[in-house]
Design a protein that fits this description.
10% strand, metal ion binding, 4 helices, mainly alpha
Amino acid sequence: MAKAKQKAAGSVPNRPIYSRISYLYQAAAYLSSTRQSEGRVPDGTPRSPENETAAGQHAQSSSVNTTKQAMSRRLLTDLRASSLKAQIRLSPAMKHTICKYCDTLLVEGDTSTSFVENQSKGGKKPWADVLLVKCNTCEGLKRFPVQAPRQKRRPIREVESKRRAEYDAAAPAQVN
């Protein structure tokens, strides 16, 4: 008889693919976070040797920023391609931070802006709030429902309102 392969208790199928996806995401996040801090001294002032002009330094730092952004986008493109090829779903937290149109890592205030929108009858329905995340690179929009407490079903609301009305009617009689 051939020996049957047994899975270890803590083994994960497709571990190398998950590791690759995790590495690509972390590398893209690192490039995205270092993009803003490039060209600055730890106290936040720009580096300026005496022989360099401010315009030349700005042009150099902007080209470095665009190169890092392009590398970050390439890593996220590879991440999406490898997950599609292996038919592995990305976690919702990871998907929420990647623009599905241009594969840019969505960093609030840097590469994206977000705001809450409510298009229901002048914003009267609080459960209809939607978080809009706008990519600054391609102007693409992602919409996520804001988790508001759900409204109870109508029969339950009617029963509760009747009980409240009965209680309010009986309360003044007891006070006198």
